[in-house]
Amino acid sequence: xxxxxxxxxxxxxxxxxxxxxxxxxxxxxxxxxxxxxxxxxxxxxxxxxxxxxxxxxxxxxxxxxxxxxxxxxxxxxxxxxxxxxxxxxxxxxxxxxxxxxxxxxxxxxxxxxxxxxxxxxxxxxxxxxxxxxxxxxxxxxxxxxxxxxxxxxxxxxxxxxxxxxxxxxxxxxxxxxxxxxxxxxxxxxxxxxxxxxxxxxxxxxxxxxxxxxxxxxxxxxxxxxxxxxxxxxxxxxxxxxxxxxxxxxxxxxxxxxxxxxxxxxxxxxxxxxxxxxxx
Length: 279
Description:
This protein is α/β, with parallel strands linked by helices and about 280 residues long. The protein has helices at about 20-30, 40-50, 55-60, 70-80, 140-155, 165-175, 175-190, 195-220, 220-225, 225-230, 235-240, 245-260, 270-279; strands at about 10-15, 35, 65-70, 90-95, 110-120, 130-135, 155-160. Strand 1 (about 10-15), helix 1 (about 20-30) and strand 2 form a beta-alpha-beta unit. Helix 7 (about 175-190) packs across helix 12. The longest helix is centred in the last third of the chain and has 22 residues, at about 195-220. The chain is elongated. It starts with 10 loop residues before the first strand and ends with a helix.
């Protein structure tokens, strides 16, 4: 069966970084006709190491979808550079979570879209399957193509309204980088207790994974554990007294957020004590 059958149009990925590589590898594995455009010799070497095809001018002329996997600040200038190089009717799609379609500039007859995988990609060979992707486009044809793309690589498609793009991306950042930042404060707390960063991560990462499993199985409120969930104000006060200021500055707002999840099931006296301590 031809890889270029309807529903799997020819794709050019612009950018040979982690996300560009991961998308190109995932699409290629599902028999999408995909090529990667790389500017530098180092980037071209990476593409060859991935055993992917390097895009040529002929590939650009034949592509139906162009995925811009470039830094957010580069999306607008790169989009303007590429519009005249693509075939008429080819779609231009950015992969930046925080940017609306306006970042691609005026359509001028071209189909525009965005495709932002909610995956913390640290290596191009990371699997995308089992995660979600935020889609946005005004074109029914491109929406169907992007949804097919998402399904083939194992991503659950979410439709994000353009006006709420920043809020969506903030939530995504909190769930990934925010968790890492909170974990760094936890490592700092263990350092005060005389535990090295290496030992702290070895101990805390399994704990973090167990907490996420609890949320996955029972939801946010039921999966939330610890002294806040138990209404143990004395323990929370002891924590704040023991923590260095930077770590306490992370602990306090996160605990207030936790209290908003479980406060309704705590005794009134415990709830009042915790609010006083945290405020």
